Request: fold
Amino acid sequence: MFEFSYLKANSLSEAAAFVAAHPDAKLLAGGMTLLPTLKQRLAQPSHLVDVGRLPELGGIELKAGRLAIGAATRHHDVATSAVVRNAIPALAYLASHIGDPQVRNCGTLGGSVANNDPAADYPAAVLALDAIIVTTQREIAAADFFQGMFATALEAGEIIVRVLFPVPKRAAYEKFPHPASGYAMAGAFVAEMATGVRVAVTGAGPGVFRWSEAESALAQNLNVAAVDKLTLDATDLNEDFHATREYRANLAKVMTKRALQKMLATK
Amino acid sequence: MTDTHAANRREDLRLITGRGRYVADSNLPHQLHACFLRADRAHAEIVTINTEPALKCRGVVAVFTGADAIAANYKQFPNMMTFTNASGATILKPERPVLAHGKVRFVGEAVAMVVAESALAAQDALDAIAIVYRDLPVAVSVEDALAAGAAQLHANVPGNLCFEWDTGDAAAVERAFAKAAHVTRLTVVSQRVVPSPMELRGCLIGYDGASDSYDIYTNSQGILMMRWQFAALTGVPEEKLRFHLHDVGGSFGQRSAVYPEHAAQMIAAKKLGRPIKWVASRSECFLSDSHGRGIVMAGELALDRDSRFTAARYQFLCDMGAYLTPTGPASHVRNPAIGMTGVYRIPALHGNFKVVLTNTAPVAAYRGAGRPDVAYMVERLVDQAASELKIERDELRRRNFIPLDAFPYKTPTMGVYEASDFAGCLGKALQAADWNGFDPRREKSRKAGKLRGIGLSTVIEGTAAGMFPKDQVAIEFDAQGRLEVYTVSLSTGQSHETTFTEIVAQTLGVAPEAVTLRESVQGKNLSGNHSGGSRSLVGCGSVCKLAAQKLIEQAKPLAAEELELEPSQLDYADGAFRSRDGEKMIGLLELAKKLVGTNPHPLNLMAEASVGSTYPNGCHVAEVEIDPETGVTEILSYTAVDDAGIVINHSVVEGQVHGGVTQGAGQVFGEHAVYDRESGQLLTGSFSDYYMPRAGWIRDIHVNDHPLPSKVNVLGAKGAGESGCTASLPSLVSAVLDAVRPLGIQHLDMPLTPSKMWHAIQTAKAE
Reply:
C-alpha cells in the first residue's frame, strides 16, 4: 500500500468539493474493492475521502412506487430491510448473495454501482429495474449510466447519493458464482415491469447488458420455454482460462431460465 | 485407547482464541525488515542491476543482490535424491544462488532484497531498483522443456533433463505385454497445484557476532530437518544455528524446506548486525513457495484372459520447476516407484522417470508427495480396464488384490508391504456407501435431469520412514516436578498435543493434563524426524510410549527406596507404585515432586527407536451428481474406510482424513497453477483465480477404521496424514467418469471444473 491521506467528510458538499479539487483523491465508502486494490499497489490515490457514514447517503424509503436506497447503504442492510423485502424481494435476495458476510457488512450500494465491476451483482438489478441513479449533480437513467467495464457516466467530483428502483410486479435474480472468486460468472436479473419483462445479464460480458432477444421472446410468451429456444450470442462475451465465451453464454441463459422460473413461481 | 469424538483437541482453545504463536508474532529488539524484489519475467539475463536509487529511499538500510549471495560463498541447496541410475549417474543439480545472479528463471524468483526500518519502507524502495533484462525463450511445461530446441535453463543441465531413472524389469514387462489378452493404455496428468497453508511464509533471523551464530524463527515441520538443510546450504555449522519454533499454521510439505529467502536474511543479519524480519504476502507465496504435484503419467496395463493383471509399465514426466528443492525429486520418483503396483498382484513392473526443469516455481513434496499421483494413475488404469472389458470395477479389483496370505508382500520394484486387508476394506466401504443400491439413485437423478455417478479407489502408500535413522523422545521433570515430553517432530496441525500426551498419560495411568508436550525445542540434544510422510505418530508417537514405559522402570527402584521396600515388592498401576500387600503406595507424579532438587532430575530419560516404513491403505467411495446445464459437480456423499493401523484417537484420524479428502477434492475439481505458455506468467496468482476447495464441499462424509496393526512400531500405527489425499483423487474422478461414461466420455483430466465438464458433455451430446 502506498501512502495516502485519510479524510473523513463532514458533509456531502464538502466531499464533492474536495474530490473536484483533488483529481487524485478517491472516495471511500465500504472499501471492499478499493482496499484490496490499494494493498496490491494497483492504485496510488493522494487522499481517501471517507463518505461511508454520511447521513445524507443513508436511508431506505418507499415512495410513489419507487424504492429509494441511499448510496452508503450496506449490502447487509439492503438484504435485511423489511421495506426492501416487501417491495422488491429479489433485490434483497441479490444483496444477501454478494461476496461474503464481511463484504456485505462493509460494502455499499453506491460503491458497487460506481465501480461497475463487470461481475458485480447490483448493476444487473439497476439495469433490469430501469433504476435512476441520483447524484450530487443530476439524475441518470441506468441505461445511460453503465458504459462498459468499470466505466460509468459519473463526472469527476460527482457522487452517487441514492438509487431509485421502480417497484416491479415481480422479479428474480440468479447467479453462477465464479468458482474461485465468488463473483458472478453469469448473473441474470429478470423483472416484470408495467412496460414488459426486462432481462439484465452481469458477469458474462465486459459490462452489464440487457438480453433483448429474451425480452422480445418473453413479451410473446412469458414462460421458460420461450428462453430455452434462444441462444445468447457469445461473440462479445468474456473468455479466459477459466471459461470460454460459449460457456458463459450458456450460463447466462441458464441463469435467466432459473431466475424466470423463480419469478413465475411468485404471485 | 479412547474415542474422544465429543472432546475438543487440547490445542484448540489456545489456537482458536488467538493465543497461538506464529512466525509473524515473533520480534527481536532493533529488528529490521526485509522485502524481496521478484522477477517479473520467467526467463531472462540480468544485464544490469542498479540499487543506488533504492538506497536513497527513506528508511532503507541496505540492498542485497545476487553479487552478495555469491560473495557469501554459500553451498548448494541440499537434495534428498541420493540414488543413481543404471548408468551410474546421479541427479544433475543446477546452481541456485540465494538471490538471482546472471539470470532469472521463473516469475517470482528473488532478485534483490531491500532491508529497511519498516516493512513498508522496504516495499516502497523496491520500485527504485532498476534492472535491465534481456528476455530469453520460455518453457513452462515438461513437454516444451524436453522438446528439441527448447529454452535451456541451466548450462549444466542439457535438455533441461536433470535425471532419468528406470525401475523394474523392462524385459519381463515386454514379454508379458506380448502375451497379453488385453492391454489398457491411459495418459493422465496430476496437475501442478499451490499448497497454500493458512499461515504465510516468514522468517526472523538474528546474528550474534560474539559467537558467530544465528537465532532463527521460521515456519517449519521440525527442528532437525530444518537445521540440517540450513547448515548444508550455508556451510554454517549446525551448532551455530539456534531454532525457535512455535505454532505452524499448516505445512503440507511446503514448510519442510530451507528457502533462498532464509539464507538471504542470514547474509543481511550478519552484515548489518541487526535481526532481519520478513513475512511474505499471499501473492509472494503463490509465486515463490514450492508448488506441488506436476506429473504427466502414461500407463499401460496388461491383462490375461481371466482379467488378471500380468504387467504394468509407466512413464513419469516430473516437473520440478526452475530449480531443485530438497524434497522434490525424491518425492516425485521414489514414492511413485514404491506405489507402482498399487494394491494389486502385478508380476512384472517397469517405470521410467524423467526429472525435468521448467521456467516455473520450484516443486516440492506436497501432502502425499508422489503417492496420490501414482495411486491416481494406477486406479484410473484399473477403472479404464474395467470399462473396456465390461467388468464391474469392484470385481476387477477383487480378482487382482494382493491376498491376505501373501504378506509381507515384496513388490516387483521397491518396498515390502505390511499385512493389509484390501478385500475387507472394499467390502466394508461398499456396504457403508450402499454401492449395490446405487441404480435407483442414478435413476432418480436422471429423472431430475442430473447425471449421477459412484466411484471408488483402493489404495496403499509407503510412508513413515524418515531421513534420520532414529526417533528419540525425552521425558524430563521441571523445577516443580511436572512431567514434560520433548520431541523433535513438530505439529503443523496434526494434533500432537492431544495424541502424544494421551499416549504418555495412558501408558502411565495419569491424567493427560499432567503431561506437557514440548516440540522441536532448541538445545535438546535429540535426534529424530520432522512431521511429514504421515510419520509423526508411527515414529515419534510410538517412542512416546516407549519413553513412558521406561519411566516406570526407571522410577521403580526410587519408589522402592521411598517406600523402604524392594523393587520386586512393587507393582505399578493407575499412576502409582503399590506394595503387594496394599499397605504402601506412592504416585509416580508425587515421587517426581519429591525428587526435585537433585540435578539432573533422577527420572529424566531418553527413549528411542528405529521405525521403518508402514503402509496405510484403504477404500474410499464417492457419489456425485453433475448438473449438465452448468457442469457443476456436487459431492453427494463420501465414505472412507482406512487401515491407518491401530487408532489412538479416532477424531484426530477423522480430522486428518476430512482434510486430506477435501484437499484431494480441491485438486480434482479446481486447483491448478496455470502458467501462460508464451510469457511464463502465473495466471492463477491469487485466490480470485486459484480455485481452492471450500469447507461446504463435502458435507456427508463417513470415516471408518479397519485397522490391521503395523508390526514396525509398538503402537501398531500406520499413519493417516496423507491417505485422504491419496484415495480421494482416484475415487472422486472415478465417480465423475461413472456419471458421464454413459454419454461416451472415457477420459477427462483434472481439474474437473464446471466449464470443462459442460464442454465435455456438450461435445459428447453432439457426437
Q: What stands out?
A: Chain A has three domains: 5-49, 58-166, 170-265. Residues 58-166 of chain A form a domain with the Uridine Diphospho-n-acetylenolpyruvylglucosamine Reductase; domain 3 fold (CATH 3.30.465.10). The first helix of chain A runs from residue 12 to 21.
